[in-house]
Amino acid sequence: MAGYFDQAHFGHEFRAFTGLTPTRYVEVRRWFLRGHPGHALDGWPLSAD
């Protein structure tokens, strides 16, 4: 997983970088894309559904 030894280390760095946990990031991203169809982020690896 991109040089991380375990999920806890990844989650810590992800939160330090984004200010959100990975789970919360996905929730916020899906909420945003539902309200902004066709946005440049739409179609990136994480779908809005």
Outline the secondary-structure elements:
Layout: H1 7-18, H2 22-35
What does it look like?
By secondary structure, this protein is mainly alpha-helical. It is built from 2 helices and no strands. The chain has one domain (1-49). 53% of the residues lie in helices and 0% in strands. The two termini are 24 Å apart. The mean pLDDT is 84. This is HTH araC/xylS-type domain-containing protein. Residues 1-28 form the HTH araC/xylS-type domain.
Summary keywords:
HTH araC/xylS-type domain-containing protein; 53% helix; 49 residues; mainly alpha; HTH_AraC
How would you briefly describe this protein structure?
0% of the residues are buried. The protein has one domain (1-49).
Helix content: 40-55%
Termini gap: 24 Å
Biggest pleated sheet: none
What's the SSE pattern? HH
Domain HTH araC/xylS-type: 1-28
Protein name: HTH araC/xylS-type domain-containing protein
InterPro entries: HTH_AraC
